[in-house]
Amino acid sequence: MQITDGKISIPVPALFSFQECLHFLDRGYDDCLYSIGDGYVIKPLEIGGKKQLIRIKEGTNSLEVEMLNEKPEPLILQLVGRWVEDWFDLNRDLTLFYKLLDEHAQLSFMVENFRGLRLMGIPNLFEALCWCVIGQQINLTFAHRLKRRLVETYGTAISYQGQPYYYFPKPEVLAELDVEQLKTLQFSRQKAEYTIGIATAFARGELSKDKVKSQPSSEQMLQKLQRIRGVGKWTANYVLMKSLARMDCIPYGDSGLNTAVASFLKLDRKPTQQEVNNFFAPFNGWESYLVIYLWRTLS
DNA sequence: TTCCAGGCAGTAG
DNA sequence: CTACTGCATGGA
After folding, report:
1. Catalytic position from the list A26, A210, A248, A254
2. Displacement of CA A253 from its chain's centroid (Å)
3. How confident is the model at residue A207 (pLDDT cuts 50, 70, 90)?
4. N or C end of chain A: smaller count of CB under 10 Å?
5. Distance CA A248 to C1' B2 in A
6. Mean per-residue pLDDT, A144-163
């Protein structure tokens, strides 16, 4: 990572495609927590309690990060750079995963077709959990609408060139809400209760990214997460993958995953958990990436 | 109209 | 243990 003149230049690894990553972020959904333009993404993020707004473009074998709202000191720039590396999962060598894909009779086409697609993270665990609750069992268009209402109502924003850029609401804010307030945003009673419960757990310090991280194994991380009401097997696996960058997660029950696996196995029904496990077996240690690539086949 | 979406908890057997 | 049900809305 190089920092010169208030800008950050991050070298990208082999098997990286900015275009594939942007495609993932775009996908036709209206997301309120970043903004995609032609060849760039603008993202608001908080570093050390300070609100930053960054624009990420592609350079020559690099990502170029520009600070849009202020010119912070080099230490902060360093942290912003690390955050971007985290978001795009840049510090991962995908050679082995690609070798496994290449050896696979049905999936080897992904090596060329999806080349360089990375696991785009949701570094904020609280946000990731809320997003799962919102997305549970409803169509993604409506899920994005619900998220937008939550963020625009209870989040904070900064303005850049006349446009507001929103930060996800703080747990302390959502923890103070009552169910009826979220129901006016068209949350179901259940989604409202789960969201407030998760916010309360974070606000009280019962749950945090560090607390989940400190568990010795993925299995125990899953168990810690699933103790929270509203967090089941699907959500726990999803957030371990997206927020903690664990590589061995399969969000069992995911309808998109079921659709993709059923299609490769030529089933006219949902695959059983055993069939999903068998399908994933050759990708031991790379399950999360395979999930991302299977979802990619659907869009 | 009915069915089902990037599920989950609660209950019954 | 498995099977079923309510939840909320919108698109196919």
Report:
1. A254
2. 18
3. very high
4. C
5. 38
6. 96
